[in-house]
Amino acid sequence: MERARFQYLARRAEPPKPLLSNVVRAFVAGGLISAVGQVVLGFFVGRGMSPEKAVSPTAVVMVFLGSLFTALGLYDRLAKWAGMGAALPITGFANSMVAPAMEFRTEGLVAGVGARIFQVAGPVLLYGLGSSFVVGMLVWIGLLLRYR
Amino acid sequence: MGSETALILAFLVGGALCALAQVLADVSRLSPAHVMVLFVVLGVAAGAVGVYEPLVKLAGAGASIPLTGFGYALAHGVEKEVRAEGVLGALSGSLKATGAGIKAAVVFAAVAALVARPRA
Amino acid sequence: MSRRAGGQTLALRPAAVVRGWSSVAGPMEGAGPLGERFDEVTPDDRLGERSVERAERRYMRRAVDLLLEKTGVEAGDVDVFLAGDLLDQLVTSSFTARELGLPYVGMYGACATSALLLGTGAALVSAGLVRRVIVATASHHLAAERQYRFPVELGVQRAPTAQWTATGGAAFLLEADGDGPRLTHFTLGRVQDMGLKDPGNMGGAMAPAAAHTLTAHFADSGRAPGDYDLILTGDLARVGHPLARKVLEEDGIELGERFEDAGILLYREDQDVHAGGSGTACSALVTAATLLPDLGAGRLRRALMVATGSLHSPTTYQQGESIPVIAHAVALEAAGHGK
């Protein structure tokens, strides 16, 4: 059989991803996790923090929740249902570090946990830190030009 | 703004960002890792040009909890630090803003590795 | 004497005898439609071991021990141990061979390993080089996930084309003569590549390999699909199996109802394994639990087992290479058949 013909048949044989239900689930789960975050944020603001200051402790609480559910073996099940609704919130960022740390514990605390902890989160940190460095340099150049 | 309104806005905006990521993941054939990277960079860019800040003001956790909010925090932290401290802020600003979350993840991951085992 | 019948098929004269077989399945496989037919089902898949790699070895070792028990053969009377698995450097096979202390060859054929082992072992026996060969394979869902994909607790959504690596082990005893189903033909696959790149759709990638080997087998052996009661592919699953059927149909080969797939048979559809089973244990478990017992009991007269394997690695996939695939086939028949 011709390669092109086979590739056509293979594409047709793939069951389509259930896009609509995937998107609805991502929306609901992502929305609910964000709403939980809002409650936590509200708690810190209620104790006198400015909304901007409260973002950091809120992140810590959400990271804790994501880690807890990962350690209990529940976060991967949530993500199977919710897809990006579980992966995109900061709880998913926590999951992306806790999951490999747990998984590679059997290879030791340094070569396993230590070396693999950023296996999934590493790219996010690289591109997040890298692009924000570029932003910082642009801001700095902008300031220099203005003060000249 | 009442707290119910804030909650609903957080739900809608956080949900919409996740739905957008899901569409991208399912339609584009990008891997989840690529979608995550794309969203953090989008957040940095949106933060840098000033369009993300109004969203954070409007939706609170709905904007700051998804990964774009992490990107925004990186960009915002860098900008603030460069204005205050000069060029070194381009290096020190982003981790100052997001360090608590990252370090919390490191600590909790290490603890989880010690006390929990992967199941399936 | 064995002779080369054609392009890629060894017709074994005399045929090798499959004197015994054993199957040890994981809990999920045990809960599937074939659950009753495995020799043993383990209550959990960790087996109390400190790593999943050690657990995978336990499945292979238990299958070998069980085979020796069932056949009453002493390990010392076995001439060669042939084994294969999915883990890097074939650690499951080699570490098991270290325990058994038998002359050992490790063979890698990805998920096509079961047929590769059975065919090679049968050829050695048929040629009169050795009297008695044990072949064994094992795979483990958790061990395969961490090596090929992601940490198991990572929140990722699997595509509907994804497959589930079977947990379990199976072993087979091949001898020159005696009672048991006969292994008569071994069709070696040629590596195929139709340019598919998605490791999340291995069934689709492997379909042309199954089609190619089946076509070669019929041409080499002079047999037709109608000569078999069962033609069983290894792990094409719900995406790849209809695709292989379609490819063969367009080439003028109709397989009909007798064409089945171990990856579809191993699990129920509601077990959330997406397209179906995979892994070296998938075809081996189904062969040891249903195909061989059915031949032994005369419920099947003749069967062709076509194990399919995807020969990529995580490195080649990340480097953007397409997925090379292979299929090996072994023809088996009931003891009295054809005499």
Structure commentary:
The complex is a heterotrimer of chains A (148), B (120) and C (339). With 148 residues, chain A is mostly helical. Chain A is 82% helix and 0% strand. Chain A has one domain (3-117). The longest helix of chain A has 28 residues, at 19-46. Chain B is an all-alpha fold and 120 residues long. Chain B has one domain. In chain B, helix 5 (67-85) packs across helix 6. The longest helix of chain B is centred in the C-terminal third of the chain and has 27 residues, at 89-115. The two termini of chain C are 18 Å apart. Chain C has 339 residues and is an alpha/beta fold. Chain C has helices at residues 27-30, 52-71, 91-100, 113-126, 141-148, 202-221, 237-250, 262-265, 280-296, 314-318; strands at 2-4, 9-25, 40-41, 80-85, 104-106, 132-139, 163-165, 168-175, 182-187, 230-233, 259-261, 276-278, 302-310, 325-333. Chain C is 34% helix and 25% strand. Chains in contact: A-B, A-C, B-C. At the A-B interface, helix 2, helix 3, helix 5, helix 6 and helix 8 of A face helix 1, helix 2, helix 4, helix 5 and helix 6 of B.
Features:
heterotrimer, A: 148 residues, mainly alpha, 8 helices, 82% helix, extended, B: 120 residues
Estimated helix fraction of chain A? over 70%
* Discrete helix count of chain A: 8
Structural class of chain A: mainly alpha
Uncertain runs of chain B are: none
Alpha plus pi helix count of chain B: 6
Q: Give the distance, in angstroms, between the N- and C-terminal Cα atoms of chain A.
A: 70 Å
Shape summary of chain B = globular
Using a beta-carbon cutoff below 8 angstroms, give the protein chain pair with the largest interface and the number of residues from each chain.
A-B, 82 and 82 residues
Taking the sheet with the most strands of chain A, its summary is:
none
* Rounded average pLDDT of chain A: 95
As a percent range, the share of strand residues of chain A is under 5%
Looking at the chains present, what oligomeric state does this protein adopt?
heterotrimer
Distance between the termini of chain B: 43 Å
Domain count of chain B: the total is 1
Instruction: Say how many strands of chain B there are.
Output: 0
Q: Radius of gyration of chain A from the CA trace? A: 21 Å
Estimate the strand proportion of chain B. Answer: under 5%
